[in-house]
Amino acid sequence: MYRIHALLAVMLFTALFWSCNNSEETPTPSPCDPSDPVCLFNSLSIAGAQRLNGAAPSPSTSASAPDITNNQSSARITADNLLYIPLIYQLNGGNLEGLYLQIVGANGYFNVSANSLTLQNNQVIISLDVPANILLGEFEISYCIYANGGLVSNVVSTGIEVVEPEGCGVFIDGEDGLTITTHELGDTPGQVTIDYFMYTVPDRIDVYYDGQWVAGTGPAPTGGIPPASNCNVNVQPGYVSGGGTITFNYAPTSNGPKSVDVYASGCLGGGTLWEYEISCPQ
Question: What is the arithmetic mean of pLDDT over 154-169?
Fold first, then answer.
């Protein structure tokens, strides 16, 4: 009888143990198709933002309302990355208080206060988290900024394409705006070379491993975020013309990713073109 009681006690403890452990597991998010704006609104996130129902406030008619003077019209990204979306603005009075962003088709929007945005000179950089459960496809976002007194700027938009990761020994090209490509490089460490060509209009490349900047056409960007740049006026550091080579050591850690993220920043407003080829570690 004692053995039976002991066996029952062990079975009960085991059941409770697995029940507790399973209850603590974080459920895996369901796949989210970019053609479903409701799913996107619930899956994408912006640090410090409020999710609000309905449509974002409309632009103000006052001459004192701020203006977005330049933004990127398109972006490409692999899922499980932060997408940095730059815009250039002008205040016509008052102070910048925040930004509204809406996924086109969603019945809700993000309200991001200015202290949760990255501000560089007259630039706002939106950090949009695109998690791993977002499937391949395209969607569009619209956004505007607002100043004190409820003054809302013009609305601009960016088309976003979620693409597959690439390998090495491949050729990538693009135009204006930001293209973030994950390149899977495997377990073997070695030296990696990126040969780029920016044509006449200057563009910028930055390479990140596990979220840390490792190389680029310019110095490490302030705050880790590549700056946006106009194509022909006030060109920012790291934006270069013509061809060149970036070389870095790839040393994957045992628990870290086996890939790097290449951020290609096409300048804004000039119809730019760029291309690069990334080698395998050697």
Answer: 94
